[in-house]
Amino acid sequence: MTKSICVVGLGYIGLPTAVMFANHGVKVHGVDLNPAAVKSIQEKQLHIEENGLQERLNNAVDGGFLTASTTPVVADVFIIAVPSPINPDNTANLEYVRLATASIVPYVKKGDLVILESTVPPKTVENIMLPELIKSGLEIGTELYVSHSPERVIPGRIFEELVNNDRIVGGINQKSAELTKELYETFVQGAIHITDATTAELVKVMENTYRDVNIAFANELAKMAEKLDVNIWEAIKFANYHPRVNVHFPGPGVGGHCIAVDPWFLVELGGDTAQIIHLSRHTNDSMPSYTAQKTQAILNQNGIAGATVAVLGLAFKGNVDDMRESPSTIVIDELHKLGLTVISHDPHIKENKHATQTQSLDEAVENADILLFLTDHNEFKSLAAATVKSKNKIVFDTKNCLNRSQWEQAGFQFHLLGDAKN
Ligand code: SAJ
Q1: Are residues 251 and 377 in the same domain?
Q2: 260 and 139 together in one domain
Q3: Would 252 be classed as within a structural domain?
Q4: pLDDT band at 1 (very low <50, low <70, confident <90, very high)
Q5: End-of-domain residue from the set 204, 239, 255
Q6: Residue 137 within a domain
Q7: How is 245-280 classified by DSSP, letter by letter?
Q8: Ligand 1 centroid – CA 319 distance (Å)
Q9: Distance from Cα 391 to the centre of ligand 1, integer Å
Q10: Domain count of the chain?
Q11: Of all helices (H) and strands (E), which one includes residue 98?
Q12: Shortest-distance Cα residue to atom 27 of ligand 1
C-alpha cells in the first residue's frame, strides 16, 4: 500500500522532497506556517529557485498528488523539514523542530512513522522530539516509529542528489530505521545506510563541519599566499592532484544555512574540545571584513577616494537565489563602515532584497570604481568583459570565477583573492 505523507516545512528541502514523493505516486500534503508559501504552492508558483522544481511541482499539483495548507493532516508518515538556526549567541535554536513536532501530535495514529530531516545537534530526537511525541499517548518504538534521516543535498542540484546520494537513516530502534529506509527507496538510488538516531545526527553535522574546517584552512592559505607571491588557486589545484588531498577553496566568507551554522552545534556540545572547529568558524567569519579591507587597499593603491563599489553577487553561492547567511551582506556592511558607496546586483535575486540592490547590471557598474565579484554565478563567468562599461576599470574577483586574460585585454586592472600577482 502506498503510504500518505505529511511534510512539515516547505522550504529548500521540504518542498523538493514533497514534490519528489508526489511525482512517485505518493499522496503528499505539505504544511507551512507561512500562508503565502502555501498559496504559491497551491497556485504552482515557486517561492524558491531550484533547477527542475517548477516542472515537478506542476506535475505534482496537476496530478492531484500534492496539496498544501498551514496545518497538518492525518497521514501514515510525517517528515519534518523545518529550520534549525542558531541564536545570536551561536547556540542552537531548536524551537522550530519542537513546535513542528508538537503540531503533528494531534494527527499521529498507531503505526505511523515520524522522520526528522532538519540538521540538528546530536540528541535532538531523543531530548526534544520524543518528549513531545509521547504526548500522543502512543508507545514510542512499537506504536509510533521515529527516525532521523538528514537531508544532504546541495542547493542547485537538489533533485539529482536526492536520487543519487547515499542516505543515512538513524532510527530510535531497528524497526523505525527499516520503515524509513523502505520509504526512501521510493526514489533513492544511492545506498541507504542504517544506524541509530544520534549517530545520524552526528554524521550530518560532521559532514558540514568537515567542509567548514577545510574552507577555513584554504582561507588561511589564501592570506599567506598573498604574502608569498603565490597564486593559491594554482597551488590548491596542484596539491589536489595528490590522491589523498582535497583542499577546498577560499572565498569572501562561508554562507548558507548549513556550513556556517552546523559547526556551532558541535562548539556548543564540545566546549573546549571543539577548538579547531571553533577557530575555523572565526577564520571563515573574518573573510567578509578581510575582503572589504582588501577592496579598500586596492582603491588606495589607485589613489581613488570616496569610491563606489559595485558588489556583484548577493546569494551565498553561485547559481542559487538564497541569501541566507550570505557573506555579501556582511561585506557590504564592512564597505559602508569604510565610508564607501555600494551598489549591488545579483541576476538570481529577482526582488530587491537588499537596500543597495539594482536589477540592472549596467546600472550597477556605470558609476563603479571597482567591480567586486562575490559569487560565482554562471552569468558572471560568461560576462563579456569588453561590454562592461564602468567608471574605473578595476576588478576584484574573490571566487576565481573570471577569465583574467579576457578582463585584462578589455583594459581592466585585475585582482584575485589569494594571489599577490596583480
Ligand atoms: N565555499 C567556499 N569554499 C569552498 C566551498 C564552499 O568558500 O571550497 C562556500 C560557498 O561559497 C558558500 C558556503 O561555503 O558560501 C557553503 O556552500 P557549500 O556549497 O559548501 O554548501 P551548502 O551550504 O550549499 O550545502 C551543504 C552541503 N554539505 C556538504 O557538502 C558536506 C550539502 O550536501 C548539505 O545538504 C547542505 O550543506 C545542508 O543542507 O546541510
Answers
A1: yes
A2: no
A3: yes
A4: low
A5: 204
A6: yes
A7: -------S---SSSTTTHHHHHHHHHGGG-HHHHHH
A8: 13
A9: 34
A10: 2
A11: helix 95-104
A12: 154
258 in catalytic set: yes
357, three cell numbers = 540592490
CATH of the domain at 260: 3.40.50.720
Domain boundary among 135, 169, 204: 204
How far, in Å, from the CA of 246 to the mean position of ligand 1?
A: 15
CB atoms within 10 A of CB 24: 13
242, 122: one domain: no
**Does position 422 have pLDDT exceeding 70, yes or no?**
no
Chain segment 252-270, per-residue pLDDT in tens:
999 998 999 999 999 999 9
Its pTM stands at 0.94
Q: Tell which atom from ligand 1 comes closest to the C-alpha of 327.
A: 15
Identify the domain containing residue 402 by its residue range: 229-422
Give 364-367 contacts, CB < 8 A, sequence gap 24+. Answer: 364/310, 364/311, 364/312, 365/310, 365/389, 365/390, 366/390, 366/391, 367/308, 367/343, 367/391
Residue 192 placed within a domain: yes
As for ligand 1, residues whose beta carbon falls within 6 Å of it are: 119, 151-155, 207-208, 211, 215, 248-249, 251, 254-256, 258-259, 316-317
Structure-block grid coordinates of residue 266: 558541535
